[in-house]
């Protein structure tokens, strides 16, 4: 009985195993295809080493400046069991051209690959859309957004800043120089004419301000002071028996003379000072150092400085005004004198006639 059961088992194994292998072999032909269909057209690329059998590989290569979805220029795709290729992507524009040149601007070096960023820097005194920097990105083979040109910054119009009588140039862009003139009686920081420069911050330098009305006399004094800045009297001359001391020789500087011991300029004075005047000369000192017992009794120490000149000028102006008033009044005075003479003459004439008549009357009475 046991032998019969074993024989049945061996019979089943021997008869079913070939059928199993046959079914397994056939299933392979049923579940997969031997070849894949040809790939569709590749845009902006081509196929390299094309084979369509199962497990074969095809290579897709993109043209220059084009990329696949993964950013690469080439890729391998396999024929699958279902007779379909792995998803094959088209080549799209990837690399951007070299960053375009922008006038009055510099740029950083960029790789020009997808999603790369380019940065522009405007030159000094220029700006791009209100800023000196500008950023662009490489998207689908193009720089987005396209850079704009750099324009020179502009200062404010001088016509809006003050009532200048003359403006040499109406340009207000960076690096422009403009000379402006104030009208008569007005000044711009002490000057009637000044040159302005438009800097890289869109500001006038020096700062433009309206012309201001000022009195003429302070301006004259200011000009006089400015003209005297170059005055130099040179080395002062010495005085006998006196030591000389000074530090400067320009306008209004002073030199001090001090008599030696036992010497004097005048009674009770042993020092004197001379000042450099506006004519480039030291004020003269009418003095000398001498011993006390030999010193003259009346030797005044005098000096003529710039104040004397100013006093003479003021005196001359006052005298001119008085003379003008007197001269203008002379015709009126002469008319008044003439009128007085005209009034008095009839009175004198009438008196003489009366006296003559009186004399004749007296003679008639005498001989009658």
Care to give the gist of this entry?
Residues 34-93, 153-213, 231-291 form the Sushi domain. With 368 residues, the protein is of the alpha+beta class.
How does this model look, in words?
Among the domains are: 31-91, Complement Module, domain 1 (Ribbon); 105-152; 158-214, Complement Module, domain 1 (Ribbon), CATH 2.10.70. 28% of the residues lie in helices and 22% in strands. The protein contains 3 helices and 22 strands. It has helices at residues 2-31, 216-227, 306-367, and strands at residues 45-48, 57-62, 66-67, 74-78, 92-93, 105-107, 117-122, 126-127, 133-139, 142-144, 151-152, 166-167, 177-181, 186-187, 193-198, 204-205, 212-213, 242-246, 254-259, 263-264, 271-275, 290-291. Strand 1 and strand 2 form a beta hairpin. The relative contact order is 0.05.
List the helices and strands and how they pair.
Elements: H1 2-31, E1 45-48, E2 57-62, E3 66-67, E4 74-78, E5 92-93, E6 105-107, E7 117-122, E8 126-127, E9 133-139, E10 142-144, E11 151-152, E12 166-167, E13 177-181, E14 186-187, E15 193-198, E16 204-205, E17 212-213, H2 216-227, E18 242-246, E19 254-259, E20 263-264, E21 271-275, E22 290-291, H3 306-367
Antiparallel strand pairs: 1-2, 2-4, 3-5, 6-7, 7-9, 8-11, 9-10, 12-13, 13-15, 14-17, 15-16, 18-19, 19-21, 20-22
Q: CATH class of the domain at 31-91, please?
A: Mainly Beta
Give, in spatial order, the strands making up the sheet with the most strands: 6-7-9-10
In percent terms, what proportion of residues is strand?
A: 15-25%
Low-confidence stretches: 23-31, 216-220, 295-307, 342-351, 361-368
Q: Report the order of strands and helices.
A: HEEEEEEEEEEEEEEEEEHEEEEEH
CATH topology of the domain at 31-91: Complement Module, domain 1
Helical residues, percent? 25-40%
Note the gap between the termini: 235 Å
Number of helices: 3
Biggest sheet overview:
4 strands, antiparallel
Estimate the mean pLDDT confidence.
71
Question: Care to count the β-strands?
Answer: 22
Rg over CA atoms? 59 Å
Shape summary: elongated
CATH architecture of the domain at 31-91: Ribbon
For the record, what is the CATH homologous superfamily label of the domain at 31-91? Complement Module, domain 1
Query: Which structural category fits the helices and strands?
Result: alpha+beta
